[in-house]
């Protein structure tokens, strides 16, 4: 049995699952988790405790790892397994936890009739241009709207500039490039979450997202410090970001590449 399979089968995970879901749901999600990890070499190498935590968070948020539903995913990040959600997953969590009656995110393309007002009497009008290929239309904005149980609607709108700002601050640029519209909708739903009645599952989902994004921010901060300190390029320091003693590692690397310089009586730049 592989290490990740032992981690997934941990009795503590089952106990946490059964506090909120049935044993049938537990078995189903465990199978989805094993399938996801088995198909990804980087996930197989992740810290075992992070795998356990990610799977427990599936139960605590009420999302599913079912790939057909595209709600939540296990992703590797710097040796850790992180749970991430799609905009569909965030919408499901909000509805299932009884925070809202309905919630969705919608892209606005060039040619659509779109108008909104904020203030005391918010208004949002969107009439999509029909019979066009959305894959070749220019995205102008995205909005997320939720209907609360008493009928009041809440919405947020992100224009292209704000969407691009979110992309630039993200550590998943490849995902953005492949699924730009979906990531834009997820960004809008995350922003709308702040305006909605909070539930335990929603708070847990936000905590999971913040932990994942906080890890990315921390990595970039450390990367910037290392680049400035040693005059290295971003692609040269991937192995240093998680190193507890980056100074020693850089020193060793530089000394191995500057032996000729030392032989000629020049001081090693790492010393």
From TrEMBL:
InterPro entries reported for this sequence: RecT_fam, ssDNA_annealing_RecT
Species, as recorded: viral metagenome
GO molecular function, one term: DNA binding
Lineage per the UniProt record: unclassified sequences, metagenomes, organismal metagenomes
GO BP terms: DNA metabolic process
Descriptive protein name: Putative DNA recombination protein
């Amino acid at each position: 049995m592989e290490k990740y399979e032992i981690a997934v089968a941990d009795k503590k995970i089952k106990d946490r699952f059964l506090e909120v879901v049935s044993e049938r749901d537990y078995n189903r999600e465990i199978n989805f988790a094993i399938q996801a990890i088995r198909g990804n070499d980087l996930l197989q190498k992740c810290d075992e405790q992070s795998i356990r935590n990610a799977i427990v968070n599936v139960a605590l948020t009420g999302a599913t790892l079912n790939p057909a539903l595209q709600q939540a995913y296990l992703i590797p990040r710097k040796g850790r397994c992180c749970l991430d959600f799609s905009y569909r997953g965030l919408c499901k969590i909000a509805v299932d936890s009884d925070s809202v009656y309905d919630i969705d995110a919608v892209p606005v393309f060039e040619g659509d009739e779109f108008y909104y007002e904020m203030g005391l009497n918010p208004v949002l009008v969107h009439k999509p241009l029909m019979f066009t290929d959305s894959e070749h239309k220019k995205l102008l904005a995205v909005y997320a709207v939720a209907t609360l149980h008493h009928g009041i609607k809440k919405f947020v709108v992100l224009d292209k500039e704000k969407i691009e700002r979110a992309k630039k601050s993200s550590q998943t640029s490849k995902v953005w490039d492949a699924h730009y519209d979906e990531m834009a909708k997820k960004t809008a739903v995350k922003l709308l979450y702040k305006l909605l009645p909070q539930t335990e599952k929603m708070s847990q989902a936000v905590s999971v997202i913040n932990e994942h994004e906080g890890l990315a921010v921390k990595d970039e901060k450390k990367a910037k410090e290392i680049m400035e300190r040693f005059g290295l390029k971003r692609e040269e320091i991937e192995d240093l970001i998680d190193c507890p003693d980056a100074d020693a590692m850089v020193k060793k690397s530089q000394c191995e590449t500057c032996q000729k310089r030392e032989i000629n009586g020049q001081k090693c730049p790492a010393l």
